[in-house]
Amino acid sequence: MTSSFVYTIAQSLHIINARVTYRNMPIHLLEKFTFKDLYRAHKMLIEKAGLNECVIIQTCNRVEVFAVSKNTDEQKMLEEWAFEVGLSNKEFANIVEISKNKDVVYHLLRLASGVDSLVIGEDQVLGQIKRAFEFSHKNGYAGSNLSIIFHRALKLGSRIRASTGLNKGSMSVGSLAVSLAGEYFDNLKNKRIMLVGSGEGASLVAKSLKQRQLNFMITSRTFERAKAFADTVAGIPIHFEKALEMFHNIDLIFVCTTAPYHLITYDRIEKARRAKEEGMMIFDLSNPRTVEEKVATIKKVKLINIDQISELVEKNIRARKNEIQTAEKLINDEMRFVDSMVKRKKAEPMIVSIFKSVDIIREHELKKAISILGKTIGSKESKTIEQLSYAIVEAILSIPMNNLRKEIELCDENEEELMNLVAKLFKYEDKYQ
Q1: Annotated catalytic residue: which of 54, 60, 256, 411?
Q2: Is 54 part of the annotated catalytic residue set?
Q3: How many Cβ atoms are within 10 Å of 127's Cβ, its own excluded?
Q4: Looking at the whole model, is its pTM more than 0.70?
Q5: Sheet hosting strand 14-21, strand order edge to edge
Q6: Residue 379: its pLDDT value, please?
Q7: pLDDT for 413
Q8: Is the terminal CB of the chain with fewer CB neighbours within 10 Å at N or C?
Q9: Nearest Cα residue to 136 out of 150, 122, 116, 125
Q10: Is 9-169+321-341 assigned to CATH 3.30.460.30?
Q11: Could you name the CATH architecture of 173-309?
Q12: Residues 154/66, Cβ–Cβ less than 8 Å
């Protein structure tokens, strides 16, 4: 029996998360890391990388693989992913983030709750997680281990949104800028809008414009980048040089770049607006600023910079500070609960094996006793003795096994050491098989 227990423990399943997100990769380049065929990607990772279970989440802000494996080394999984996107293993390793076991659970709970989103409290990510899990589960890629943490994460995400105001009035710099533009102009749908940039800030502006069903042009210093951004998020890509020549025909400009110089100058805007009667609004959401401040002095041109917007966003976040703290508390409470569930599930195979082994002894001793008693007892007495044998096993094992479950739940990192110790105490197979 010892050998089978040691095998069970040695083969304990590990949870791994590998991700590429807006935090470590420009959003217009994230598409490069997506799996084009999800059926093929799941199958490839399970078969070639030796995974037991797999869920892939893909949004415009992130590409994440949640996996369960008997192997704690995620290298093979990363190699297969790198090969799929055409990067060397070294290049890919420098980009991807890795979490394991408890950290994976914590990350998923935060993600589902909207706390880890680009815009805190956003609702969209919860639906994206749900669809990704349902796809994997329906096709047999996600089993009982990932089901536990995904079910709990989805329930928590819904509960936080229902019981707190985390998703009420949540605003990013980009969405707030678009809202202010909507207040400035009577009807944004009639306005000609240009977005300059293709990074994280630009994506938030693009999302907000898209939600309002507004058409807009997107430009970047390289047309390829503008086109990739438009394909991923939205917008009509145009060449940068052409964009600079179109200011006379633009009503609203959002600038979200990292250029070390002024992309939009006083002279260019003054010249473009010289013969125009309509007002123009420019949002400089760049850091450092890339719109010359003197532009604000031009008649009928409204310039709002990143500092003004950021101050309003911070005010919005401060107003929701209590909701964020409540959400974090709920996440931590759920983390403890899920951790206990996972540990309990990890111990169950060994506990079941112990009961089975004891049952072998029970049956062996019962047959021996019935054989000795022979014809001195009838079928009714035999049945009573058999029921007694079951009751004795249950009475002896139930307390220590329940205590084992509790101890494993309380363990921080040494639950396998505890299970190995228990395995040495029960050597039934060595003696009876």
Answers
A1: 60
A2: no
A3: 11
A4: no
A5: 53-58, 62-69, 14-21, 97-100
A6: 86
A7: 62
A8: C
A9: 150
A10: yes
A11: 3-Layer(aba) Sandwich (3.40)
A12: no
